[in-house]
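In response to the reviewer comment on reproducibility (Comment 2.3), we provide here a single inverse folding case reported in full, input and output, so that an independent group could reproduce the run without further information from us. The structure tokens appear first.
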């Protein structure tokens, strides 16, 4: 497994690249209104249509059935862009690193958060 870095996203042949995204941030970097909290039971049709239009996505069959489906879709766009798909990956923050605690134990700490911009969109948002 390979931890994606801002300057090297692709995993070695036959491996996986791991990246982290935050769907609310990906909605914003896409120039779209973030999906309201699941507890508010938002109507999914309008945000799904806006996302599909921004990324020229084909129709999703059988459709977006839940808030989680739609959040997973926007999260997948960041991964697809980082893997070379037709969108722009936007790495934010600092790369993951090892931090040594007071007892001398090294632990990996959170690194980049990956956002995405639609094809042809302007600079960072």
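Designed residues, in position order:
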């Amino acid at each position: 497994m390979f931890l994606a870095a801002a300057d090297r996203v692709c995993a070695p042949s036959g491996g996986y690249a791991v990246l982290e995204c935050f769907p609310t941030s990906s909605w914003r970097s896409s120039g779209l209104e973030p999906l309201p909290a699941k507890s508010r039971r938002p109507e999914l049709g309008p945000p799904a249509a806006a996302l599909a239009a921004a990324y020229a996505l084909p129709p999703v069959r059988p459709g977006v059935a839940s808030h989680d489906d739609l959040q997973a879709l926007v999260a997948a766009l960041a991964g697809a862009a980082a893997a070379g798909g037709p969108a722009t990956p936007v790495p934010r923050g600092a790369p993951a690193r090892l931090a040594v605690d007071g007892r001398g134990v090294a632990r990996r700490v959170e690194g980049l958060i990956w956002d995405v911009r639609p094809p042809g969109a302007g600079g960072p948002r």
